[in-house]
User: What shape does this take?
Amino acid sequence: MRHDLTASLSGCLALAGLLAFAAVPVAAEEPTEMEMGTAPALDTATTEPVDLSGAGTEMAIVPEVPPGSPRDPDGAFFLDGVAPGLLAANGVFDSKTPDLVVTLRGGVQVSSAYFGSSESETSFNGAARIDYLRFPNGFEYGSGAAVGYRTGLGLRGSVRYIGGRNSSHYEELNGLDNVDWSLETGLGIGYEQRNYRVFADARYGVIGHNSWVADVGADGIAYPVDGLTLTFGPRLNFGSNRFADTYFGISSTEAERSTAGLSEYNPSGGLLGVGAELGARYLWNERWGVEGYASYARLVNDAADSPITEQGSADQFSVRVGITRRISLDF
Assistant: This one.
């Protein structure tokens, strides 16, 4: 389903209010995340710093959830017990001494149909975020607690999925080559305190575009009400020559086939987008929560000068929201 940009803007404005609906005394952390869905113009995966101490522990990892969380008398969230398996509390997905802690998110996303598009599309959006991983040698990555920010300088993991572009689905792109979906993986470095963080990530398209991208950003972190954590800050998006050519370039053959009269274009990489992202996370308890993100990016330099962008829009929007479930596994 397609939506105009007015709908996307409305979604951005409504996001913070939607997630601030309730109040429970809990905080949250920013771990490694893999996004799946239609490619937004600005979608930076974030992580907690890696714990470089190498100190293992056998203590039960049970995050604190202060009184007032919506539990039943047995201490379970109201959705736990409705269905077996993933929804059930204290089962196989809730080990007290986990080697792996993952947060899963499922929801919807409204984003630009493709890089440079003036149209928006609604799609499913999912995420798999690694909060904590303990290796056999005792080395620990991330944090086993579901609440609280880690502080200091640390490594970050970064993963992004970009959906494919089928040119036959868009009249303005008819005649251009299709672009396959891509999976980017990489690392970064970040510095974080309770009320702010800065980071820089580099990723390579191991599947798909086979090129380099990088993101630099900073966030202010606020806790306006109990249970709600807000983040907001600027983003800079970089891409290599090959990345720019994949999504914004037009070969001479494509120009000849273009029914919209798009001319040949050979872009260079560099700074391709500037923007900002608003994030919000609310935890009902240590297992369940809701989170959402609204981002805006302005395509610049060769990305903005591409005929693909000129017949579309340099303003790129993305809004995504979903329910989260934290699972803990003991191997």
